[in-house]
Write a structure and sequence with these properties.
The structure is a single chain. A hairpin with a 2-residue loop joins β14 (171-189) and β15 (192-195). The chain contains 4 helices and 27 strands. The strands form 3 sheets. Strands 1, 3, 4, 5, 6, 7, 8, 9, 10, 11, 13, 14, 15 and 16 form a 14-stranded antiparallel β-sheet that branches. It is mainly beta and 372 residues long.
């Protein structure tokens, strides 16, 4: 959940040549497996939003998210936020906690984050994160997320670059994925402990510029079945960069990446206009992945179906920290909303590897984000 998709002024039309999409790297290097150094916090000293997000799917049907946001506004002010969200299987109102944290910093290797009351700690062999937070009494977090398949980034470094001079870009966007993880632990709420034993997806993201300049819309897919994970993060740039679509993601199973790269697509196959803000709220989706296995076999994967009633609709301007809101206030045409879904009806992933076809039902968590 990119609650930090924020602030500034609109840009002139530079055109599609002013974005060097990671898809170009992916033509020759579809993806690279993550090494520990790929998980370092950049903690830039210029405008950026950097996040580590853990998307949780408990065996008992709870869906959750914990996230830390590092936000730098123009090199003038840096702030950090710890967010927790829980969606309940019975459909009651989601629990949402969002707290500014002080005393933040990183370990010597920039691999672990800490602040007063919370810590996200990568273990020595870079296979699991400990996520602990007592920043909000409504949701005390104590989780361990362990990857069960390799992590990946698309291309050689996971980055798309923005700027009219490719040698001196003024902005960037990067995503690094642990697509398939096991989670243990709980989130203690005022209504009792929630055991989050189950599956998880971890994403480390860096928007090295004003986020609403980089992306006007997002589609997000996190699908987890007994055997497979299928994940996708797709964004469309504003017209200033030619409304260019960049889609990064992949399919994994226990112990291996089936395929990953930028040859993916997310579609909203059914939409209705939200009467409150006129955004085209999706009612059904189709996500598709295309790539090759490590041994060179062709891979095609597809996930399609109804989203059902939304879990939540987040008015981002009502949720972001006050310092950001003051910057966003004057931006004409920036009305960010996040729509969140997890269909009750399990959807099926169709996967074809070489001549072998399989289909497997699983749980989908999906977001649609509209910014400008």
């Amino acid at each position: 959940m990119r609650v930090a998709n924020v602030a500034g002024t609109q840009e002139p039309i530079y055109g599609p040549s002013a974005i060097q999409s990671v898809a170009k790297q992916a033509e020759t290097t579809p993806y690279t497996e993550l090494q520990p150094q790929d998980l370092r916090w950049a903690a830039m000293d210029s405008t950026c939003v950097e996040t580590q997000t853990f998307y949780l799917m408990a065996d008992d049907g709870h869906i959750g998210m914990t996230q830390v946001i590092y936000n730098n506004v123009a090199g003038i002010r840096t702030s950090c936020q710890f967010n927790t969200k829980i969606f309940y299987p019975d459909g009651k109102k989601p629990l949402w906690s969002s707290d500014a944290v002080d005393g933040y910093g990183f370990d010597d290797r920039q691999l672990s984050f800490y602040a007063d009351g919370c810590a996200i700690t990568l273990n020595e062999d870079a296979t699991s994160y400990s996520v602990k937070s007592a920043t909000n009494e409504a949701s005390i977090v104590n989780l361990t997320v362990t990857r069960t398949a390799p992590g990946f980034q698309v291309g050689s470094n996971g980055k798309s670059f923005f700027g009219t001079d490719p040698q001196h870009p003024w902005g960037s966007m990067r995503h690094a994925f642990w697509p398939r993880c096991h989670v243990e632990g709980s989130i203690i709420t005022k209504n009792g402990d929630i055991d989050f034993k189950g599956r998880a997806l971890f994403i480390h993201a860096l928007q090295g510029m004003k986020p609403h300049h980089a992306a006007a819309r997002w589609k997000f897919c996190n699908f987890q079945s007994p055997t497979y994970a299928a994940v996708m993060m797709e964004y469309t740039t504003p017209p200033s960069y030619g409304s260019t679509v960049v889609s990064v993601g992949g399919v994994a199973q226990e112990g291996e990446i089936v395929c990953a790269g930028a040859a993916n697509s997310g579609q909203h196959t059914q939409i209705t206009s939200d009467p409150d803000n006129e955004w085209p709220e999706p009612g059904a989706v189709r996500f598709a992945w295309s790539g090759k296995t490590e041994s060179g076999e062709d891979v095609q994967a597809e996930l399609e179906g109804s989203l059902g009633p939304r879990l939540d609709r987040v008015d981002v301007l009502a949720e972001v920290p006050a310092v950001i809101k003051t910057l966003v206030g004057g931006v004409v045409g920036t009305r960010p909303y996040i729509y969140q879904y997890a269909p009750k009806q399990k959807l099926g992933l169709k996967l074809k590897v070489g001549d072998k076809e399989v289909a497997e039902e699983g749980v989908l968590f999906s977001e649609a984000v509209f910014i400008s």
